[in-house]
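To whoever is covering the structure queue this week,

Two jobs came back overnight. Logging them here so there's a record in the thread.

Job A:
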Amino acid sequence: MPLSLRILLVASILVPLLFLLGTALYDRQQLTAQAYADADRLSAIAKEHALKVVETNALVLDRIEDRIRGLSWDQIDAEAEPIQRWMVLLDEAVAQSISLHLVRPDARVALLSIAWPTPPLDLSTRGYFRSLVAGERGLVFGPPRLSRLTGIVTFVMARRRETAEGRFDGAVIGSILPGYFQAQWHAMDPEGRATFTLLRTDGQILASHPTKDGNGLFDPPEPGSVPAAVLHPSEAGVAIQRFGERQEWLTAFRKVGEHPLVVSVTVSMDRVAGEWLRNTALTGSICLVVALALSLTTALAIRRWRSEQRVQARLSVTADELRGEIARRETAEAGLMQAQRLEALGRLTGGIAHDFNNLLTAILGTVHLLERHIGAAADDRVRKLLGVARDAVQRGAKLNASLLAFARRQRLHTESLDANELVQGFTPLIQRALGEAVTLALVLDPELPACRADAAQLEAALLNLAINARDAMPRGGTVTLTTRPARLDQTLLASNPDAKPGDYVAISLRDVGTGMPAAVLERVFEPFFTTKPQGKGTGLGLSQVFGFIRQLGGHVAIDSTPGEGSVVTLYLPEAEELPAAPRRPAPCCRPRPSPAWLAPPSWWSRMTSGCGRWRRRRCAMPAIG
């Protein structure tokens, strides 16, 4: 797989993953920052609202004090009914207040805006009243209580009333509805993401939204549980802190003006985390879709690349096969051209050898007629000249025999042979031909089948190959003679129309000599072609072997590498029958028939028709070649 597709595959997974991680981190930071900003903003609004409510009620208490300023309690009792009606009107004008109280110094309620005549009520047990009695100045806030008269939860805001001398002279109280704060807080945060609380600086909760139990009543705070931001609120602004075992609560505290009140807004970080998880899940889904799309695109690209590679591989294989087929065709054509050239040479050589044979027969007959005609009257010079002529005819006869062998016109005595037995019996002659500097090694297959061949011609061919191997190794070496079964197919026999595909007996002779270049290999079987110096060879040795093997219906192959040596392999057809049990005599002792090429032509018979003794002596002529 190319590097570009690998990078694309990794990027299709890594890029959406990195985008998801980056988006998740950014979103978490943004949501956390948003939570801080929301707590800050909501606490500021809640603080302003609480301050407005407190100051409004403080003005109401101021108006009550103005109404009764300078009056003694006896005078207040005397004007109680008009004052009470005025307080009712004042109470109705303020929505966040449900009732107004005027309390005597002994803690008894003198006037009440929601009831006439005033019911007997004693506030001496109220903590906020005791604080006023103890000298607390300013506004004092009491904890939420369920009113016995209205059945509504309220908390009070009280102020100390003093005489001209500064002595405690009762209190002016207003009851405030927590629901007024809750309605405002709900309007500020309709989704309920934050918790709003109005507290005293000692930690007592006056109002909260949303509430857990819904009754609006709160227990006094446990010692040590009140945050420092409530006990000692900052005058400068907001104080934001994290609470909880997992720091899951984010709370902003703000002091309400100069009053002992604190507004807190708490945001759940778990809710923020949940929102973050939802956003991350949505982003992850989108990234997953994108990653799948990119991966699918990459997979398609990889599949297409692999398909192209397979096509290229097939094209490459096809091209290699085509090149191989072209090479095989070129080799076959070259072999066919070589075979056709050798065939043409064979035909030409056969024709020439036939005519040459007639001439040699005429010459030899003439020599015999001269010897007969001269008879005893011939002197030494004549007999010598006749002997020279007879020797020349013998040499020509040998040359003609080689030409006929190449032309595949010699008479063969084929029979079933055991090639191993023939090689072993012929080994001494081959070794003598190789000389002392060359070692002969035999590698014979014991399971070798019988072959069909002419024993004398096969021995001559092996001897010819051995002599060529010896000449190729002037410094000596090893010649290896091997026998083995072989099978040749049509491809190997493309240049040999005389042989058929099938089973053969292979006889190989390998040398470690100088070897032959390709240019020499192309012409090695041509008659009269030789690489030996002039006078050292006729160029008919391998051509004679070639013609003999082809005439048998076999095949001959030669392989050579310059500097490494050559190997010549003779492929002889397998015999269907077993070889004869008795071994043929050695070639030096075997009687040889008169060669067929020496038979006189018809014109010579007519010329010597009167010489019956010639006809009787024809079979007694010496064999030539």
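Job B:
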Amino acid sequence: MSDVLARPDLARLHDDADWWRQAAVYQIYPRSFADADGDGIGDLRGIRARVPYLQDLGIDAVWMSPFYPSALADGGYDVDDYRDIDPRLGTLAEFDDLVAALHEAGIRVIIDIVPNHTSDRHEWFREALASPRGSAARARYVFRDGLGPDGSLPPADWTSAFGGPAWEPVGDGQWYLHYFATEQPDLNWDNREVRDDFLRTLRFWSDRGVDGFRIDVAHGLAKRLDDELPDQATLDALPRDGAHPLWDRDEVHEIYAEWRGVFDEYTPPRTAVAEAWVESHRRPRYASVEGLGQAFNFDLLEAPFDAAEFRRIVDANLALAAASGSSTTWVLSNHDVVRHATRYGLPEPSVPGEKHGGAWLLSGGTTPALDRERGLRRARAASLFVLALPGSAYLYQGEELGLPEVADIPAAQRQDPAYFRNPGVDIGRDGCRVPLPWESEGDSFGFGPAGAHLPQPAWFGEYAADGQSDDPTSTLSMYRRALALRHDLQGAEELEWVPTADADVVHFRRPDGWEVVANFGPRPVALPEGASVLVASGDLDDGVLPAETTAWLRR
């Protein structure tokens, strides 16, 4: 009998096909997690050294953001080689060692796949630039002839997601599409060679023990670009109903049906979760059993701290999960948004659709005023609420420390292309990617033996893991307690709402009788009589739930 099957905990990893349905998944941004070699950049050996911390935290899986060879034009989402490790982060042997250590700790491994685009240093794109128009090398990407007699004008006036034009000339009258950074040329997914190569990539990592994949820009692979391209205004006005030229086309699910065939070659089947920014009624198809299996629900990332809004979002997404046969997902922070401990301490945006915290970031963190204490109080309450819900909870590194956003990063030390392509409009995402504080003191607060690739503020030491580990009132202790209880209490993927007399209070009951009460309002409320408290996001007093506090109960 193999060592894996001889141990019941590891045998569960080998056999449980539904492990992901209600998993607590911890996102690691490798370059900012832990640095073992002292070059200021996090690496695989740094993650390996922190596996005991992850095990103590109580998570079920880690999701690692890209670790591939990259020029870091977009934080690693510009991939040079999909089947290798950036030498600054480690080696394939070190990756194998990390996967083995995580599995030994009972933790699954999910990795990022970036299929919409490669980097401009990828061997395919270098070959495309060296080849003539109409060549097989260029057919792997989205090339178009420029307008005007000499092709010196772009094929369309499209704007990239990071600002600036979305078409780049190559000097011979042709242009390539890059919906994101210039260094990220879009692939042509009508090309059979592209499809086959990604099937090879999925098998490559699955064979190395990877349990699942997070699919970047999952709604963007299939495109239909006619000879005459619409202008940007027309493109923006087109409905995203399955026939949009760029986004959420129905044909994308043919790609994922092929991927599902690969996933099902393994025991247990590999799983995937789609990053698909689509209309909610179109999300279930990405999460179907014939496709990727699960899709991110980002509704709480954009929601105010409000009882009615949280309840509406829970109802809507549980219904969507039922429609797909999947489980839903819950996310409060990730590597692309302002950390929720900061968002909840800022006023709600005054303009519909405005990025929450965007103006504050542009001001360098001075305007509007941040109520850091309230932000953390609300963040703890929201996190405890989310961890009690049926479905998967996706956590972002540092949120278990209550880590706030860093706003005052000097311009010379910023890295995000959104900052450089949108000066004065978008400050970028560097503030949520600042390396973690592991220790209360030191040059990089324990991140590594030297400095950190993004500057850490002096106050980071207040949030360090070593200062929280033995404090029963800390945010880290709350997460550990909640995740341990989640394993013990988790039952069927359902909940029952319990009526309340206060519109600011949300109360629900999970299978086996445990209950959750969340007070979103400004005043304390009475807890149900006869209830014992399992865990709470703040101090309780004589059966009273304080303002902006959540508690798990047993009666």
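Note for Job B: The CA atoms of residues 59 and 189 lie 35 Å apart.

Please reply-all if you pick these up so we don't duplicate work.
Q.
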